[in-house]
């Protein structure tokens, strides 16, 4: 995407109908030639590469076992490994780089890596794929930030533990504080710890921009070295985002390419000012700007939480799912998150027919905002996707109310039933009930029609939320509405809500 166009999003009063979404990646083999080549290499090349890669990984795993021999986790946390153990890390790095080469991924290095004394922390961006993990072999096996569960893995866990990682304990309420404390301790220690390697974005993107950097890497206030990663390939078979190819498909397509390139550029060490030392977020934003300039991409204030919101909205098929992050930001600018006006609109009798065809003036009136406000115009235009000058206000209400608070899916369905109740008496017609299930459970219209008729056995031509709830409690296909939370529901369906190579520090 054109960087100049994308950059307009960073302006508060700018607008363009097609939002830059860093969490989406589409990958298809576009030509017959690509399909034939992939088929042939799947038969001829893929098995050879897999055998070589597995052999190298086993060799590296065995070396890590030797290097960890006689050491406890407490030993690994208290002081850096030295002597012959430290020398083994060089051999692991050699095997790791050879593994990537065997898979056809050639790493091109630009710039010079700083020493630990020059920069105790390496900040890597953009983070777009599990292949980014190869940078630990290029940078000499630095310590990484990783979930404790990953280190407990009997296979890959040995290699992870050998880096002397900083662990994140997801079940520990003090995990974030303890992780930051450990990063500060190592970064400022006089001991010869490995450099700390951090992906500050906290999740994978499609490299179209740099999203918000989490401040964990910047709390120590020490010099850091920014490191940029690029994949300048004609066919992008590496990008792993929440909406896109699976990890297995990406691995298959990458290993069936003749070669792929990964470009790693070490930028000059960034030494923080006194103001940046006092303000980690300022430090993080300034480093992000430097890296964005080097990469030639814009910066966007998206976070991992935004990714979660977009994932949830997309899965539920909520109206305007792709724009909800920007819509919520505009709501905060307009103070709507404080006034809770949308919640109040559910409690008053408003003509539902007018909701279905809402003009800009009506939209502003409903929200108690001036229709002349540029932010109101921008918010309306996000909703007016066909530029007709008219929107369905009910879709706005559902999208906002389903995502502005931590509601489970059943609560969202209840809200949708109230929003689409044309007469305000709790009764939903066939068309409106079908819309409710389509925009909360992503249910196809014909399936929703079948559910309606199964509930409406008496032929009343309407159903209520309580009717649906009673029906759903008896059906296995709706069991998840009552047994697990909304996030668990989506996680069980799609794996992690956002692909994460490691658990990042906030």
UniProtKB/TrEMBL annotation:
Q: In which pathway does it act?
A: Phospholipid metabolism; Lipid metabolism; phospholipid metabolism
Which family is this protein grouped under? Belongs to the 1-acyl-sn-glycerol-3-phosphate acyltransferase family.
Q: Which GO terms describe its molecular function?
A: calcium ion binding; lysophosphatidic acid acyltransferase activity; O-acyltransferase activity
What subcellular compartments does it reside in? Answer: Membrane
> Native species of this protein?
Photinus pyralis (Common eastern firefly)
EF-hand domain segment(s): 371-406, 408-443
| Cell membrane found in the keyword field | no
**Highest taxon, organism lineage:** Eukaryota
Q: Which lineage do the record's taxonomy fields give for this organism?
A: Eukaryota, Metazoa, Ecdysozoa, Arthropoda, Hexapoda
User: One GO cellular component from the entry?
Assistant: endoplasmic reticulum
Q: What is this protein called?
A: EF-hand domain-containing protein
Q: Does the keyword DNA damage apply?
A: no
Query: Where are its TM segments located?
Result: 43-71
The alphabetized UniProt keywords are: Acyltransferase, Calcium, Lipid biosynthesis, Lipid metabolism, Membrane, Phospholipid biosynthesis, Phospholipid metabolism, Transferase, Transmembrane, Transmembrane helix
Which GO biological process annotations does it have? phospholipid biosynthetic process
Instruction: Check the record and name the InterPro entries matching this protein.
Output: EF-hand-dom_pair, EF_Hand_1_Ca_BS, EF_hand_dom, LPCAT1-like, Plipid/glycerol_acylTrfase
Pfam families, sorted? Acyltransferase
């Amino acid at each position: 995407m054109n960087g100049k166009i994308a950059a307009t999003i960073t302006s508060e009063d700018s607008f363009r109908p097609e939002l830059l979404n860093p969490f989406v990646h589409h990958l298809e083999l576009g030509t017959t030639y690509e399909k034939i080549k992939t088929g042939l290499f799947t038969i001829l090349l893929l098995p050879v590469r897999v055998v070589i890669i597995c052999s190298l990984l086993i060799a590296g795993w065995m070396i890590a076992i030797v290097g960890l021999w006689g050491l406890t986790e407490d030993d690994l946390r208290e002081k850096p490994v030295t002597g012959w153990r430290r020398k083994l890390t060089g051999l692991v790095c050699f095997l790791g780089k050879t593994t990537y080469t065997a898979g056809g991924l050639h790493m091109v290095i630009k710039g010079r890596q700083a020493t630990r004394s020059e920069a105790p922390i390496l900040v890597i961006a953009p983070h777009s794929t599990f292949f980014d993990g190869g940078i630990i072999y290029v940078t000499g096996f630095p310590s990484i930030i990783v979930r404790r569960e990953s280190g407990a893995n009997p296979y890959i866990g040995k290699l992870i533990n050998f880096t002397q990682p900083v662990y994140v304990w997801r079940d520990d309420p003090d995990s974030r504080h303890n992780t930051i404390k450990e990063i500060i301790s190592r970064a400022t220690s006089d001991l010869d710890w490995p450099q700390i390697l951090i992906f500050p974005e906290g999740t994978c993107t499609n490299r179209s921009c740099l999203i918000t950097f989490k401040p964990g890497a910047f709390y120590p206030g020490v010099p850091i070295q920014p490191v940029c990663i690029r994949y300048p390939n004609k066919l992008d078979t590496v990008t792993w985002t929440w909406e896109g190819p699976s990890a297995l498909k990406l691995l298959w397509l990458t290993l069936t390419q003749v070669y792929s390139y990964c470009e790693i550029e070490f930028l000059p060490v960034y030494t923080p000012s006194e103001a940046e030392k006092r303000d980690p977020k300022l430090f993080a934003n300034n480093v992000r700007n430097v890296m964005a300039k080097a990469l030639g991409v814009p910066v966007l204030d998206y976070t991992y939480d935004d990714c979660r919101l977009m994932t949830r909205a997309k899965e539920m098929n909520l109206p305007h799912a792709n724009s909800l992050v920007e819509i919520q930001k505009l709501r905060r600018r307009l103070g709507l998150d404080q006034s809770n006006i949308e919640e109040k609109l559910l409690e008053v009798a408003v003509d539902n027919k007018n909701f279905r065809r809402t003009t800009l003036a009506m939209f502003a009136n409903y929200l108690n905002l001036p229709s002349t406000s540029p932010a109101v115009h921008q918010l309306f235009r996000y909703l007016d996707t066909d530029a007709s000058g008219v929107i369905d206000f009910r879709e706005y209400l559902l999208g906002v109310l389903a995502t502005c608070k931590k509601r489970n899916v059943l609560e969202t369905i209840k809200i949708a039933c109230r929003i689409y109740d044309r007469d305000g008496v709790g009764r939903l017609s066939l068309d409106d009930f079908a819309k409710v299930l389509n925009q909360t459970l992503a249910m196809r219209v014909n399936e929703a029609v079948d559910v309606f008729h199964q509930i409406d056995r008496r032929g009343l031509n309407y159903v209520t939320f309580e009717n649906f709830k009673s029906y759903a409690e008896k059906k296995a296909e709706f069991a998840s509405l009552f047994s697990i939370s909304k996030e668990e529901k989506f996680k069980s369906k799609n794996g992690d809500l956002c692909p994460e190579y490691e658990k990042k520090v906030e």
